[in-house]
Backbone:
């Protein structure tokens, strides 16, 4: 039977159904007559017994209550479904509010299982991914994080932050696996750094058009505009020594360049597991 998610009234005049839910939340099971007497006494209810009886039958029909031998109690399944719905609504609203206050967000859309965010710079997008990972891993242990990216430019601008990130993840016994499409000198240098901190890294493994990351039961896709990807590719492939990288030029003309970087976060245990297996297959 489909369950009607009847919601209690907030403020204003309460209905017979509100009183029934309130009473059955403390005392159960009750017959219709006992419930009517209790509601009448406790809430100074002035309507007839028939109004309570009719509301009881409607709540049973909606799946909110269950009846057994003339006695009524709240349907636990209704409580669970109501809890899941309210938690999801709370999560969606909280996420939307956080996103609207974050720097660099052009627009966002939050549904039950998918979050889509468009950032105006690559820096802003990467900061959000760091925030998402940090909040997901917090108070969790043994999380497996997998990522496939084109080039790892973060280390050249967030060296200390990346070191602290890795130390924090290690303290939570997280496992990290990374595939880098590039194999230029900066890519290999970054890979050696991450390996020294316990990450599993391979370079020169070509990926798809977009970058992907799996964190727990979330699959994250990062869509970087082609001109930004090409600019990073040009810098990395032309670098013969780390000193060759013009950091100011990278920041002003690539990482902070106004554009549209889209991140799609799909909460799907099966999708995340499938992609995680594909990435981890390279380390067997």
Residues:
């Amino acid at each position: 039977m489909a369950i009607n998610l009847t919601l209690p009234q907030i403020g204003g005049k309460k209905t017979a159904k509100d009183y029934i839910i309130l009473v059955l939340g403390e005392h159960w099971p009750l017959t219709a007559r006992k419930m009517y007497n209790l509601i009448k006494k406790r809430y100074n209810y002035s309507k007839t017994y028939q109004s309570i009886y009719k509301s009881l039958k409607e709540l049973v029909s909606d799946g909110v209550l269950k009846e057994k031998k003339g006695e009524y109690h709240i349907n636990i399944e209704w409580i669970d479904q109501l809890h899941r719905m309210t938690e999801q609504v709370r999560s969606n609203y909280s996420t939307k509010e956080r996103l609207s206050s974050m720097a660099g967000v052009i627009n966002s859309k939050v549904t039950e299982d998918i979050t889509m965010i468009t950032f105006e710079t690559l820096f802003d997008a990467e900061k959000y991914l760091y925030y998402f990972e940090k909040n997901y891993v917090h108070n969790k242990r043994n999380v497996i994080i997998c990522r496939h990216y084109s080039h790892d430019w973060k280390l050249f601008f967030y060296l200390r932050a990346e070191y602290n990130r890795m130390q924090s993840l290690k303290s939570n016994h997280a496992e990290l696996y990374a595939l880098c499409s590039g194999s230029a000198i900066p890519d290999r240098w970054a890979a050696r750094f991450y390996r020294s901190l316990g990450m599993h890294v391979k370079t020169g493994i070509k990926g798809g058009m977009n970058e992907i990351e799996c964190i727990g039961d979330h699959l994250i896709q990062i869509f970087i505009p082609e001109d930004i990807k090409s600019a990073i590719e040009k810098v990395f492939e032309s670098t013969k020594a780390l000193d060759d990288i013009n950091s100011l030029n990278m920041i002003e003309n690539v990482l902070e360049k106004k554009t549209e970087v889209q991140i799609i976060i799909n909460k799907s245990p099966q999708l995340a597991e499938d992609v995680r297996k594909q990435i981890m297959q390279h380390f067997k």
